[in-house]
Amino acid sequence: MKKTLIILGSSRSQGHTFEAVKLIKNKLQNPSFIDLANYKITDFDYLQQNKDDDFKQIIEHILQHETIILATPVYWYTMSAAMKRFVDRLTDLLPATEDQDTPLRNKNLAVISSYGVHPEGKDGFETIFINTAKYLSMNYLACYFYYSGNNPSISEKNINLADEFLTRLNKN
């Protein structure tokens, strides 16, 4: 299995999204894990004067892995603020000229997400990550939607959906 890194971006480090991460993490071969709540990531700055945060440290860790899994709850039909700040900062990695390449080229990107409102909670959510992967020349693999709501007939599908997600990860 390729080296995998899971990056959690949630307001609750032990919340529903972490429960979804555990389902996946326990079935992967020794994945690395980063909780963005333990790091300082500042907003994107066009002048790139973000010198007092941990973004570069996280990127150095990312570059050692082939597959990056971003884990975030669905907040207002998009990713959490912590994950959005981190994804915005990926702009720092874009090449200065067209003849240069992004350091994320050919790495794999996947997403784990928890949502509580069905089906509206996940409508359009995955498109953001598909487009981000394309823009950064990454290979988009899949999104695992973990249902954290109160409908037991939907909740019982979480395990099967996790297995389908892992199958898609292992194909690449």
Task: Characterize the structure shown.
The structure is a single chain. Helix content is 32%, strand content 19%. It contains six helices and five strands, in the order βαβαβαβαβαα. Strand 1, helix 1 (16-25) and strand 2 (32-35) form a beta-alpha-beta unit. By secondary structure, the chain is an alpha/beta fold. It has one domain: Rossmann fold.
CATH class descriptor name: Alpha Beta
Q: Please report which band the strand proportion falls in: under 5%, 5-15%, 15-25%, 25-35%, 35-45% or over 45%.
A: 15-25%
What is the CATH architecture descriptor?
3-Layer(aba) Sandwich
Estimate the helix proportion, in percent: 25-40%
Distance between the amino and carboxyl termini: 9 Å
The CATH homologous superfamily name equals: Flavodoxin domain
Shape: globular
N-to-C order of helices and strands: EHEHEHEHEHH
Structure characteristics:
32% helix, Rossmann fold, 6 helices, single chain, five-stranded parallel sheet, alpha/beta, 172 residues
